[in-house]
Automatic annotation (TrEMBL):
Domain of life: Bacteria
Metal-binding among keywords: no
Annotated keywords: Antibiotic resistance, Membrane, Transmembrane, Transmembrane helix
Compartments in which it is found: Membrane
Record flagged with keyword Lipid biosynthesis: no
Residues passing through the membrane, by range: 20-43, 55-76, 97-122, 134-154, 161-181, 218-238
Pfam families associated with the record: ABC2_membrane
All copies of domain ABC-2 type transporter transmembrane, residue ranges: 11-209
Taxonomic placement: Bacteria, Bacillati, Actinomycetota, Actinomycetes, Pseudonocardiales
Name recorded for this polypeptide: ABC transporter permease
Length: 247
């Protein structure tokens, strides 16, 4: 456990020493909330709409932080001689991977702070403390598919390919999942596609915990299904990469 925490501390210090990547993870979701939510009169004037908008943007912040931090971070580290040296040490992969995941979780949680500030200062969003406490583990649980997505991409692709692939998956996936605008604005033919995505499932589950609304019968099975599928892909990509480089 001590070694794992040392790796997590090293990863976190490395992240904050590259302010461009860290600041983008922290500020972009808040900027998107200003552009897509605060600019809407319905969100500004309605506590219900503002709270829902804050919840879905918080999930966008966390999911994006996981996918970009792990997807791009792993791909970048795979090209570094230092990473090869660290993995060749007789300490096993658990501490290295665990430290990386703890760092990604820390950045993801920190990304929620600017969104919360924008929601609290510029909108009528409101949630009781018990609702906020209940929403945090749901947020983290719904972020698992994006943890596995990032690991699968990072262990499968070089850095130059990982960056556009993460962007091409996360940006359309976030829009189609209703994280930038409510699914009620979608045309009827798009709604079934949206409900099959992990972004939409996560949105419904997070808003259910945050506001007490019914997430519907589809959200939880879809979230579990994507978690299992992407988890299997991440394990396969990790084993393939480790077997190729360290056998």
């Amino acid at each position: 456990m001590t070694l794992l925490l040392h790796h997590a501390r090293f990863r976190f210090l490395e992240s904050i020493r590259e302010p461009v990547a860290t600041v983008s993870s922290l500020l972009f979701p808040a900027l998107f909330m200003v552009m897509f939510s605060v600019a809407s009169s319905a969100v500004r004037d309605s506590a219900e709409h503002a709270t829902a908008s804050a919840g879905q943007m918080a999930f966008f912040a966390l999911a994006s932080a996981f996918a970009f931090n792990l997807g791009i971070g792993v791909a970048v580290d795979r090209d570094k001689p230092w990473e090869l040296y660290v993995r060749a040490l007789p300490v096993g992969a658990g501490a290295v991977l665990g430290g990386r995941l703890l760092n990604a979780a820390a950045i993801a949680v920190l990304s929620l702070v600017p969104v919360a500030l924008v929601a609290g200062l510029l909108t009528e969003a409101h949630a009781t403390p018990p609702r906020l406490v209940a929403a945090l583990p749901v947020l983290l649980g719904c972020g698992l598919p994006f943890v596995f997505l990032g690991l699968a991409i990072g262990h499968s692709l070089p850095m130059k390919a990982a960056i556009p692939v993460v962007q091409l998956i996360m940006l359309p996936g976030s829009f189609l999942g209703g994280l930038w605008m409510p699914p009620s604005a979608f045309p009827a033919w798009l709604d079934p596609v949206s409900q099959a995505l992990p972004t939409r499932a996560g949105r419904e589950l997070v808003l259910g915990a945050l506001t007490g609304t019914d997430p519907g019968p589809v959200a939880l099975p879809v979230a579990i299904g994507w978690t299992v599928l992407l988890g299997a892909l991440a394990v396969a990509a990790y084993r393939r990469d480790e077997g190729r480089r360290f056998r």
